[in-house]
Target: MmcQ/YjbR family DNA-binding protein
Amino acid sequence: MDIEQFREYCLSKKGVTEELPFGPETLVYKVMGKIFALTGLDSEIFTVNLKCDPERAVSLREEFSFIIPGYHMNKKHWNTVNFERTPSKMASELVDHSYDIVVSGLTKKLQTELAQL
Model:
């Protein structure tokens, strides 16, 4: 999955916005105002920070060398994934997992608004 496929995939999800809140070099994807994915546009290697269940985060890091603790993020809840080395199906699944975790943590009001979109 390249950066354009990543963008399209993220933006195809319900309630997602694309923003640059940290400056022009960091592309951020939010669902109902909450971050679920971000990537640096000035990096030589295409990596993405994704939210992850803490136990699964550790398991993924142990199993795959291209997944490391989240760069500049809470390392318990975030992984940095090298998308240049990640199979496309797995990349999509990791984005889905991040999105789902963030959605499950939304308030009931925001979850209702999301469901109505």
